[in-house]
Amino acid sequence: MAGLEENLTAVRARIDAAARAAGRDPATVGLLAVSKTWPAADVRALAALGQHDFGENRVQELLDKAGELEGVALRWHFVGQLQRNKAAALVRTGAVVHSVDRTSLVTTLDRAGRSAGRPVEVFLQVDLGGPVGEAAARGGAQPGDVPALADAAAEAAGLRLRGLMAVAPRDGDPAPAFARLAALAERVRADHPEADALSAGMSGDLEAAVAAGATLVRVGTALFGSRPLPCGEFEEHQPRESQQSHGAHPNRTTGDDATTTVPTRR
Length: 266
Fold this sequence. Notes:
Layout: H1 2-21, E1 30-34, H2 40-48, E2 53-56, H3 59-68, E3 75-78, H4 87-91, E4 96-100, H5 103-116, E5 120-126, H6 146-155, E6 159-166, H7 175-191, E7 197-199, H8 206-211, E8 216-219, H9 221-224
Parallel strand pairs: 1-2, 1-8, 2-3, 3-4, 4-5, 5-6, 6-7
Helix pairs in contact: 6-7
């Protein structure tokens, strides 16, 4: 618990400092704790410290944790690539979906939201690209397709369009990519004023995201430590972070393309 508390304090201090440096009120920037691969006990511990928004990138893991933590005051967010055949189960948890990147998924989630009797809150994921001439390989709609996708989501009775979400390119300065995202978000807001949220920034680049206007940063490694992953698995929704997180266990691997290790229970 002590390590998690220190990490949470440090991350919140970074967010506050980034907001003030950008001339923003720190209260306008929320924190989403990305708890994927970590046990429900860690989520419960952070919730007890006042953190109530948690993100997962696998539907089954989210469902399992939601069941184990039923009754705990928290809000689930889904940040992975969503298969349409799993949408209904996800929607029943009330999760916010950050990865809507195609009209077929808009249709599926709209149907699930209307069936559940409450709109599904969604972010449209934008592909910010990678090196010049290359795709980001992290999912997301092409920027030119986003306005039409926003129109479709806004018109769907079973959805509530929250805004845009993106991951900065893995290499190089994230600021230019976040600036492009901010400009696109402004264009979407012009047509859909309710879509005023911007989900961007992670452990390694949250300051740049806040400077560009992010209202929600998605942080995992700096809170929980480096994630244990099967050999060769690549996490599309986390950057390769070079910095060691505060309080990370020395036996845990660093980086998000790491080999498997077993998390040490706190």
